[in-house]
# Entry
Amino acid sequence: MNWEIQKHIEFAAGYLELKMFDEALREADVAAALAPHDSHVLAIKSAILWEQNRLNEAEPFMAQLAEMNPRNTGLWINLAYIRRRTKSVEAAAETLQRAFNANPHDALANFNMACYRAVQNRPAEALELLRSALNLDPKLRALVKAEQDFDSIRALPSFQELLNGNGA
# Structure
């Protein structure tokens, strides 16, 4: 990346940190004019729009970034988050499936897919994915307790066993 693009990205990041969104977007737009497909440009644009809760506008930037980095689970999780709020749970689950297929042993991919399956009223799949997530990363158990997506399966004995560490 050349110094001019980097300078505008750094300015945009600084303005974003200060919550000066208009200025941040102006700098990001200058960088985008110079390098529209640069991953750093896409990341700062999506971050600025995300921070402003302009998720419909952030979606294409996040989608392009995820496509450029297909094994980056975090990007797919973020894109799924956006699509859940701007489209549907089904669109989010379809998006997250890409991360899950690329990284079936990623604890967060399993955890997030378990959330979507629980919300979609698919308890058996949700529990199996949750079991897998907890086996991969037992520290996720703390998140399970607070995650509202699991409310539909929380009363199931198998969920309680997982939560207590007996079913993982």
